[in-house]
Each structure stands twice: as structure tokens, then as C-alpha cells.
Amino acid sequence: MTEPPRTATQHAFIALAPPDEAKDELAHALSPAYAAYPDLRWNRIEDWHITLAFLGELPVQAVQRLRAPLADLAAASSPLELALLGGGHFDERVLWSGIEGDLDGLHELADTVRARVKDCGIAFVERPLRPHLTLARARRSDTASITAAAACLDGFTGRPWRTERLHLVGSTERGHPGPRRYQDVDAWPLPAGQRRPDPKPPQAAPREQRGGSGSALTPPQPHTP
Predict the structure, then answer these.
(1) Is 12's pLDDT higher than 90?
(2) What is the spatial distance between Cα 76 and Cα 120, in angstroms, rounded to a whole number?
């Protein structure tokens, strides 16, 4: 008996991304950590993002169904003013850089995004929003590099920037040979003419262990997270 074809699936999430100038500023601050800890599983700089909703593994067709609703949502949303701030780690395993600025607006946008996904009939596991950029992960036997790398970002404060686009990101399909890679399924501009009122005094997130500045170096060849 011939087996029915397997439904194509991929991992997907909805996110914001810092502009290139903000990424370059953070990469410069990370340069001592790149040099000192090349064996960490460094994320590619082009993959740095602020996750609003992680949807897990979905049928590719379900991911495609989100394009029109998210386009409408982006058209009705305002840009946010954010900045990158310092660094820290989750359980000495994951290195992150924090986010400051309009965190209330960021949480509101995440809530709206998640509600829109549910309206599309797509179920996913909701996790509390902890705004950050994931930068690197430790290898199984490494219990010290992440905390030391986080210390390299002590005192780092990036220049403010405005969010420009809402991104729907998907991975290579399950069963694809080679490492899993992520790229935009689609992205939509946030109207530049609309602006939220000035946010409250800057606040940083996430509030976990905080751990940089230095001269620029070319980062090592990153590993897929």
C-alpha cells in the first residue's frame, strides 16, 4: 500500500529585527567575546531578532495563511523606539543582549500578534515575552564561557532605533538536508507616519543574570542554533 505523502512542515515565528546599524554596534561590542570564545554556537548576525511569538513546527500551508492577517496587522501598527542594552544569560547556557525603550508597546504588539495567530485557528504554546536577542549557546560540556561572554557586554548601551518591519520567519522544511536555516517568509513595513507617545523612562529586559565593549574583530564562523 502506498503511504500518503507527508505534510511539509517548518518551524516559524513572528519577530522584529534591529536595523543593521544597531547590529553592527552590538557586534563591535561583542568582538572580545568572539575572539575569546570561538567554540560557542554563535548565532548568525542576520538571524538576530526579537521574538514576539514562537509558533513551533507548523504545516507550511498554515504558515502561509498568516501572511494576509499579519500584513493587515502591520499596516495598523505603529513603530516602536527600542535600543539594545548590555548582556546576560539564561541558566549559563544561552547568551543574550537585552532590550530597553518602549517595552509596554512591545508587549502590546506581541499580544496583538498572538491574538491574530489564534484567530487564524493556529494553536501554539504561549510563553511569557522576555524581550532579548539570542546571541550564542554553550556546548554541552562548556559551563563557563557563556557567563564570561556576558561580562563582555557590561556597560554596553546601544543607540535608540525605530522598528521598521514585522517579520514572519520560517525554517527550512523538515527533512531538508543540512542544518536548519531561517529566512523571512514575508515582512511588512510598520507605518513610519504613526508614532506612539514617548515611552516611560527606559527599562531593560529580560531581567535575568546580567553579564561589553571592545575593538572590532571579524566574528567566527557561526554555528546553527
Answers:
(1) yes
(2) 18
